[in-house]
Design goal:
- The chain has 426 residues and is mostly beta strands.
- It is 3% helix and 37% strand.
- The chain has helices at residues 31-34, 87-90, 285-289, and strands at 49-50, 76-79, 95-96, 100-104, 109-114, 117-120, 124-129, 132-136, 151-152, 154-155, 158-159, 169-170, 175-176, 178-187, 190-198, 210-218, 226-227, 232-233, 246-252, 258-263, 278-283, 297-302, 305-309, 318-319, 323-331, 334-341, 346-352, 363-367, 385-390, 400-406, 417-424.
- Strands 14, 15, 16, 17 and 18 form a five-stranded antiparallel beta sheet that branches.
C-alpha cells in the first residue's frame, strides 16, 4: 500500500492509559499495584513459567550449563531518536517508539520499524502515523558504535507512514485508531510486516481493545505495501484475547520451516486477563508467501503428549505474568526470547535449543526499578519501559542487542524514544 501524509492534530493520537499499569491514572487496582507509585515498579511476580515438563515440550534440556561468555556491554541505553540533530531526525522522524529491527537480506542492510511517530521531538510537529521505517546500511554487533540511520522509507530524509490508511476511520473492517507493528521479516525477495489494528487504547477490564491483526507484504523492499486479504479477528470483531493478535517471526530454521510465535495483543499493558500465554506454529515459506495461512502446523499438547499437528490449535507453551511486547529470534543455533513482563516491571530473556524445546528460566535484563526485588539489583534501569526487541544481528546468543522503548504515557512529556542495549546475556 502506498503512503500519503496525514497531518492531524497531535492530541488525536495520544493514548490515554496505555502505560497505566504502574500507578498511572486509570490502572486497575489489584493489591500488588496499590504498592506502586508513578515511575516505581515493585515486582512480586516471578515471570513467565513454562508449562510443567510433562505437558510442556517433547524435548528436554540436557542440564549442561550455558556459556556465559560474550562481549561486555557497550551501548547501555543509547537513544535512537527524540534528540535534536540525531540520525532519526535527519531522516524526517523526530520521535517514535518500538524500532523493531529486521535483516534486509536482499542487500545486507537493516530495517527498524517504528510505531506511532512524530516529525518533532517529544511528540511535537506533524503526526507521521504508524508504522514507519528507518534503515541502516551496516550494524555494529560489538556495540562499539551505536545504531545510526542512513535512510528512510520511502526515500532518504522523508520518513512517512508505510501503509495507506487513515487513522480513526473505518476502512471496511471496523473503526481503526492505528495499526501497530509487531514484527518484520524478509525472505525470498519479499518483506512481511505483522501488525495489530487498534480500536481503542482504553478497553474495558479484561478486553484487549483490538479490531483485528493482519500481515502486509512489500515486493519493493518496504516502499509500497499490500495487505493480505485474510485477517485474524480481534476483540471488536468478536474474538477478544485472540492468540494471533501479536506475532514474532523467529526465522526460517535449517529444517526449512518458518517458525512463528504469537500471543494476545496487549497494547494497554494493563490487561489482567492476558495470563502471559505464548503459542507456537510453523509454516512453509512458500505457503506463507502465497497467503495460504491454513497450511500452518501447530505445536500442541494432544493425547498426553506434544506434537506438530494440523488437527488441533496451538497450545500455550508458556504462561504466567501479564506480558506486553515480545520477540523471538534464532541467534546462531540458539533461540532467544525477550518480552516485557508487566508484573515484574522488566524486560526479561529466555533461551531454548529449539523452538519446540523447553525454555530456560526468565532473566530480568532491563528493569523499571532496580532496587526490588533482588533480581533487579544492578540491572540497567529504564522507568516506564516496554518493548524489548532482539536485534537479529546480535553478536551471539550470549551477547544480545535489545531495543527498548520508554514513554511515561503523557503526550508531549519527554522522552518518547527507543534505546539500544548491547551485550545482554540471556
Amino acid at each position: 500500500m502506498a503512503d500519503e501524509p496525514r497531518p492531524q492534530p497531535s492530541n488525536q493520537h495520544s493514548r490515554p492509559g496505555k502505560y497505566s499499569a504502574y500507578g498511572r491514572p486509570g490502572a486497575p487496582e489489584p493489591s500488588r499495584r496499590r504498592a506502586l507509585t508513578a515511575g516505581l515498579g515493585i515486582a512480586l511476580g516471578a515471570g513467565l513459567a513454562a508449562v510443567p515438563a510433562t505437558t510442556a515440550a517433547a524435548a528436554s534440556r540436557d542440564g549442561a550449563p550455558r556459556a556465559r561468555t560474550g562481549a561486555r556491554v557497550q551501548q547501555s541505553g543509547a537513544s535512537l531518536c527524540d534528540r535534536p540533530g540525531d540520525s532519526a531526525s535527519a531522516q524526517g522522524l523526530g520521535s517514535g517508539d518500538l524500532a523493531i529491527p529486521y535483516y534486509r537480506e536482499h542487500d545486507g542492510t537493516w530495517g527498524y520499524v517504528f510505531g506511532d511517530s512524530w516529525a518533532g521531538i517529544q511528540q511535537t510537529g506533524a503526526y507521521l502515523g504508524s508504522p514507519l521505517m528507518l534503515n541502516q546500511d551496516r550494524f555494529d554487533a560489538s556495540g562499539q558504535t551505536p545504531i545510526s540511520f542512513t535512510w528512510a522509507m520511502p526515500t532518504g530524509g522523508a520518513a512517512r507512514q508505510l501503509f495507506d490508511y487513515g487513522h480513526q476511520q473505518d476502512h471496511g473492517h471496523g473503526w481503526e485508531f492505528s495499526r501497530i507493528p509487531n514484527d518484520c521479516i524478509e525472505f525470498g525477495g519479499r518483506t512481511y510486516l505483522q501488525y495489530t489494528s487498534v480500536n481503542t487504547w482504553t478497553p474495558d477490564a479484561g478486553r484487549d481493545g483490538s479490531l483485528m491483526s493482519g500481515v502486509a507484504y512489500s515486493d519493493d523492499h518496504g516502499v509500497t505495501w499490500t495487505d493480505y486479504p485474510y485477517h485474524w479477528a480481534g476483540d471488536v470483531q468478536g474474538v477478544n484475547q485472540s492468540m494471533y493478535g501479536m506475532w514474532s517471526f523467529a526465522g526460517i530454521d535449517p529444517d526449512g520451516w518458518l517458525y512463528v510465535f504469537s500471543k494476545r495483543w496487549n497494547g494497554s499493558h494493563r490487561n489482567t486477563a492476558d495470563g502471559g500465554a505464548i503459542q507456537l506454529f510453523r509454516i512453509q515459506p512458500g505457503d506463507f508467501r502465497a497467503g495460504n495461512f491454513g497450511a500452518q502446523q501447530n505445536w500442541a499438547y494432544v493425547d498426553g503428549g506434544w506434537r506438530w499437528t494440523t488437527a488441533a490449535a496451538p497450545s500455550p507453551i508458556l504462561t504466567g505474568n501479564n506480558i506486553g511486547e515480545f520477540s523471538v529470534k534464532r541467534i546462531g543455533s540458539t533461540y532467544c526470547m525477550s518480552y516485557f513482563d508487566v508484573d515484574d516491571y522488566a524486560i526479561c530473556t529466555r533461551t531454548a535449543p529449539r523452538p519446540d524445546a523447553v525454555w530456560s528460566a526468565p532473566v530480568p535484563q532491563i528493569v523499571g526499578n532496580n532496587t526490588f526485588p533482588p533480581g533487579h539489583w544492578g540491572r540497567p534501569q529504564v522507568p516506564f519501559l516496554y518493548g524489548g526487541y532482539i536485534h537479529p544481528g546480535s553478536a551471539s546468543a550470549t551477547s544480545l542487542t535489545l531495543i527498548v522503548s520508554q514513554w511515561n504515557g503523557q503526550q508531549g512529556s519527554p522522552p518518547y524514544w527507543a534505546l539500544q542495549f548491547d551485550g545482554i546475556r540471556p
